[in-house]
Amino acid sequence: MERTHCGHIRTEHVDQKVKLKGWVQKRRDLGGLIFIDLRDRSGIVQTVFSPEHNEEALQVAEKLRSEYVVEIEGTVLKRDTSTINENMATGEVEVLVDGVTVVNESKALPIKVDDHKDLTEETRLKYRYLDLRREPMQETLILRHRTAQAIRHYLNSNDFLEMETPILTKSTPEGARDYLVPSRVNPGQFYALPQSPQIFKQLFMVSGFEKYYQITRCFRDEDLRADRQPEFTQVDIETSFLSQEEIMQMTEEMLQSVVKEVKGLDVTLPFPRLTYDEAMERYGSDKPDTRFGLELVNMSGVFQNSGFKVFKQAVESGGKVSAINVKGFADQYSRKDIDHLTEFVSVYGAKGLAWMKVDGESLTGPIAKFFEEEEEHSILEALNGESNDLLLFVADKPDVVAASLGALRSKLGKELNLIDESQFNFLWVTDWPLFEYDEDDGRYHAAHHPFTMPQTGDMNQLHEDPSNVKAKAYDVVLNGYELGGGSLRIYKKDMQEKMFEALGFSKEEAHDQFGFLLEALEFGAPPHGGIALGFDRLVMILAGKTNLRDTIAFPKTASASDLLTQAPSQVDQHQLEELYLQSIAKYEDNEG
Amino acid sequence: MERTHCGHIRTEHVDQKVKLKGWVQKRRDLGGLIFIDLRDRSGIVQTVFSPEHNEEALQVAEKLRSEYVVEIEGTVLKRDTSTINENMATGEVEVLVDGVTVVNESKALPIKVDDHKDLTEETRLKYRYLDLRREPMQETLILRHRTAQAIRHYLNSNDFLEMETPILTKSTPEGARDYLVPSRVNPGQFYALPQSPQIFKQLFMVSGFEKYYQITRCFRDEDLRADRQPEFTQVDIETSFLSQEEIMQMTEEMLQSVVKEVKGLDVTLPFPRLTYDEAMERYGSDKPDTRFGLELVNMSGVFQNSGFKVFKQAVESGGKVSAINVKGFADQYSRKDIDHLTEFVSVYGAKGLAWMKVDGESLTGPIAKFFEEEEEHSILEALNGESNDLLLFVADKPDVVAASLGALRSKLGKELNLIDESQFNFLWVTDWPLFEYDEDDGRYHAAHHPFTMPQTGDMNQLHEDPSNVKAKAYDVVLNGYELGGGSLRIYKKDMQEKMFEALGFSKEEAHDQFGFLLEALEFGAPPHGGIALGFDRLVMILAGKTNLRDTIAFPKTASASDLLTQAPSQVDQHQLEELYLQSIAKYEDNEG
User: Fold this and answer.
1) CB–CB of A324/A296 below 8 Å?
2) CA A459 remoteness from chain centre
3) What's the CA gap between A536 and A538, in Å, rounded?
4) Quick one: which residues bind L-aspartate (chains A, B) (predicted)?
């Protein structure tokens, strides 16, 4: 007899013989009968063991425990109206058991499969194979599968070729820290695991493939935060001959079709767009969550001649003053509450958090006395201040204002339940700075990567005024997460050389590390550009999760360990010798 | 104006304005006109620059060289009947150029794109991005893309979930040599790159996912041969509750649908099946190419009382005699030719290659005199000997007979042009030995891997008579290549423990290395099994190639190097220090 899947049995199967294979989800003994909820990937069905129908099967059933693997043959029956379970897809039927075989037993589980209570993450990761039996994890990984296929479906239909790039690649000093792989055949030499297939995908364009994609693993040996993993999956895309506009459109269409295919929801195109400068000004963030308001308002104009010196001086000294109007919540914030907010913004460098409340048409609070009627009026007008609004101000250097009020906005949005969790708010952030200044080593770094096309036609500006050069780069943001980033790439050798120079590479260094790319740009490289999306993060948001680890089958902990297999681990000395390596970890231990 | 793809232009587009973007494939100057063959991924179209139509464009065209990237606007014309090129898809049309822009220039290429002559592999790999511009490489990588999608299409339609497993995993001593990745966060510890996702896919089964697949990268740090790469791509499949028969059927259907989708060819199901013992007996190979005959015939019965002592003694001492009838080619093999064949088989350990020719109904050759008429008759009958047949014999230990005649069969099949290259001969080899004896370290190893289910129900046999235990394992063979292998897996803890014991693991070693798997088998592990297919090899055969490197975009050389990016390479000392490592490669150099 062919196997029937538990979750697929319906009233139309009544009176049919079925053969089921699966796990004992639950056993109940009731009035001489035994009920076993049998589970397979498709779902759960109730089976009934009756002494009158089959005494032998009942005796086996008495020995069944949770998570035993069994094969059951039986007949589908319609349940009595009184026992129909409307919460189960198979709730109108049950299977009267003719025979049962125990295929494998199970010890008592350290993780209950049908219990959705929060378990410690350590237990979940140690017994990941059991954690993955739980419905939320099954659902998430199935959604992950469907998301990958939806992406492929769109890209395949649009003439993209899925092509593979090496995992054993060359280490380059730019970007994050590489994972290294010692070579046995080439003593003293190392491969690096790729941080992204960036250069290879550009070379595919030089090869004339025009439209490439790959859903691929990337690696960064960085200190981990909650939303980072040492290995992560990236949807990597590159195209030739397309404008920035066309690449953004293609990306939007792809994401629209993915959300439709996976969630059944409609996303409106085009996505809203903000320049980087606008995003920082209005949201204090380069990845704003637009599912709620609380926008930052630049008050520098209002306060340039303010009676409140702190504000006036901030503006005069090249800083700015911005504010958030926490609309209608003034009565919910005590002085002590506001002290906590002040503490919160101080982490982001803000020297203080000024505040006022609106009472009728007046401002109240410790600093209200500094504002004459006219200025009070301007403040209320600029912030659309109404009674019971709480107004929060930071006066500082522009980046401190953005960082502190941006973080405060996010915090308040969550605290005050202003976020509509059902929304998928996509957004583009464009016109990024090409460089960012690194205070630590006193030089400019590529904000995106060194292959990003500058917006300037005047390449001398790269040297003379780097901080004001914008890039042909664009990030796609979803619900406050950076979902992905892309850019047009430099496709002429001389421009790429000038770029390396601006980043402080000597000619020799540029040639040593990227000589093959520079050479490739001399052989008819087409204009090209692309985007890379964080696949784990996309799945996380689509699944309504907040932790990347819940979207990855076998993730690593914050110390980059796999608690299940105990990786990384010590290896045999001869393995190191074959690689011409010696561990100095023990010396460190002794001295440390 | 929207871009039109060069290769798509047909007579139906005549009189339409088009905008083309692509590469100059070829330029010809003829009677005051300039003809540029313009190429993009879709193909090639001829464009015409005429002084009467547009003098300015013609002047630009004069500067165009091969592989310049250009944008062209023009009008589609029907060619004169006399100039139609039937070898081009666009051969009935040409584009009269209104305007042309040089987008990027190109130096003269070290690899000609339209020249299919064999280049040195070194040049091809160093300039891989140019090698990939060549039509054969474009076609192969497009076929690779289509093969991957065809596999996914079949598996997705059959309820398989594509799920990812880690690349940073745990090193285990079984199997091939691991690539190691030093951990920075965990000093003195190492990850290993996976040789296959074997254990993770089994854990997915323990998790209840029932049907898993992944097209994933695997790694082996072995000394490379022509058909090996340090990283390779595997189609990895695992199922629960299916019998060996069902898994084989599913695999056959998948391969049938892939060949249909990619090549448009019909493959007959079921695939022929041979046991391992039959394959060795009849083809001297565990991956026989059945596109030609030249089967090995076991002559031990015929020769057990032979007048030729060499044969008789071989049989008596536990060896065997087998023969190949090279039908109808006796007159093409001189003594010297046969001496070469003797040399050839000696590499495989054969002490000699006996031979006779059939002349009429008699045997000729140096050993013919040892056979009386009756024995001569038996030989001719057993080998279906007819005039002008060449009969080749090896008498030796069974494994030497198989290895030497198996290799000889392959060599003769190629040499004599007996192989129909258009055929796709799939084949199953089943009933593999569970163990193989390793003479070097004097113990048994798992022939497949330590998780393979033995055919014996009597687990004591694992210890008492390991060499005769067969495995529930099956290989799929295509045209003489091992395309993939699979097995049912052990799903009970006690059996897995006995297996480790038979492989010489102490209890402690088994627990240290595979404790998590043993534990997982105690929590309701379902019966499961699967298969893994070599994706690069499948693509190679489908593309009609004989070198794996021709199917991989950026392959490594035989010394595991990437000639393009120069990986592996030396890294900064501080990178090693962060990993608590010291290279001793230099000391080795000094001493070596």
Assistant:
1) yes
2) 35
3) 6
4) 174, 220, 448, 489
- List the one residue out of B85, B84, B58 whose CA is nearest residue B72: B58
Instruction: Inspect the interface and report whether the beta carbons of B199 and A104 lie closer than 8 Å.
Output: no
Cα dist from B139 to A371, B43, B68, B228, B551, whole Å: 74, 11, 22, 22, 10
A174 is in an annotated binding site: yes
ipTM above 0.90?
yes
Answer whether A581 sits within 8 Å of B583, measured CB to CB: yes
The domain A138-167+198-269+426-565 is classified under which CATH number: 3.40.50.150, 3.40.50.300, 1.20.1300.10, 3.30.930.10? 3.30.930.10
- Which sequence spans correspond to the domains of chain B? 6-104, 119-274+425-430+472-490+526-558, 292-419, 433-470+492-514
CA distance A489 to A433: 15
Distance (Å) from the C-alpha of residue A500 to the closest C-alpha of chain B? 17
Cα separations in angstroms, B98 against A128, A376, B70, B92: 65, 65, 13, 20
What distance in Å separates the CA atoms of residue A182 and residue B460, rounded to the nearest whole number?
A: 42
Query: Quick one: fold of B119-274+425-430+472-490+526-558?
Result: BirA Bifunctional Protein; domain 2 (3.30.930)
CA distance A460 to chain B (A): 21
Does domain B6-104 bear CATH number 2.40.50.140?
Answer: yes
A209 touches chain B (CB under 8 A): yes
Give the β-pairing of B426-430 and B273-275. parallel
Q: Where does residue A366 fall: left (phi above 0), alpha (psi -120 to 50 degrees), or beta otherwise?
A: alpha
Q: Matching CATH topology for B6-104 and B119-274+425-430+472-490+526-558?
A: no
- CB atoms under 10 Å from CB of B545, counted, come to 16
Q: What are residue B61's phi and psi, to 5 degrees? A: -60, -30
Average pLDDT over residues A528-549: 96
Residues B418-454 have pLDDT tens digits of 999 999 999 999 999 999 988 887 888 898 899 999 9
> How far separated are the first and last CA of chain B, in Å rounded?
66
pLDDT digits (tens, 9 = 90+) for A331-380: 999 999 999 999 999 999 999 999 999 999 999 999 999 999 999 999 99
A138/B164 CB distance under 8 A: no
Q: Are strands A528-534 and A231-240 parallel, antiparallel or unpaired?
A: antiparallel
Q: Are the beta carbons of A210 and B583 separated by less than 8 Å?
A: no
The confidence score (pLDDT) of residue B591 equals 40
Please, which residues 485-514 of chain A have a Cβ atom closer than 8 Å to chain B?
491-492
Architecture of domain B292-419: 2-Layer Sandwich (3.30)
